[in-house]
Amino acid sequence: MGEAVDKVRRQERRTLLAVGEDCLKGSKYDWLTNPANMTRAQQNRFRALRDSSLKTARAWAIKEFAMGLWHYSSRTWAAKGWARWLSWAVRSQLEPVKKTAATIKTHLWGIINAVVLKVHNGHAESINSRIQRMKSRARGFRNRERFRNAIYFHLGGLDLYPAQVGNR
Fold first, then answer.
1. Cβ–Cβ under 8 Å, residues 78 and 116
2. Which of 42, 100, 130, 164 is most enclosed, with most CB atoms within 10 A?
């Protein structure tokens, strides 16, 4: 959704610049930052943008509504909340938001399962990140066998210290 909001902002900025309006200049990170992490000065500057009638403000509101849907514990309420969000996103007449809504609709059963069961793929993403970092540090590998061995060696959790034989 963050990418969709940014696409709407870029399209609207181009449209407004053609008319001579420059109210969206320098506001990219305001739209992408979590309001809880903003300083007071950022919040004051962003409040005027957020409360405006810009298309970007509407896309941002849709994104924020979706962020609130991740805290449900009931499958029924989660399904109702996501259905309401999908309805709003499709009716928004903002193409990037509608495209994101179509993607979410195709994966809705998995999203609802993730919301209700409180599961995530953070651990797998962490391992993949460490593998990619190892690959880039090595500047690549000549063959898959060496790459696989490097993964096992660095990420296998092996205890390579010799065992204590006894006190001498």
1. yes
2. 100
Nearest to 149 by CA among 135, 161, 159: 135
Integer Cα distance of 57 and 12 in angstroms: 11
Asked if the model's pLDDT at residue 53 lies above 60, the reply is yes
pLDDT digits (tens, 9 = 90+) for 77-105: 999 999 999 999 999 999 999 999 999 99
- Are the C-beta atoms of 46 and 60 separated by less than 8 Å? no
Q: Is the Cα torsion angle 6, 8, 10, 16 positive or negative in sign?
A: negative
- What is the rounded CA–CA span in Å between residue 13 and residue 21? 8
Pure H helices in the chain: 2-19, 28-32, 40-50, 55-67, 75-91, 95-106, 108-117, 122-137, 144-155
Closest CA to 63 of 8, 142, 123: 8
Q: How far apart are CA 38 and CA 46, in angstroms?
A: 9
138 secondary structure, DSSP code: T
pTM for this structure? 0.71
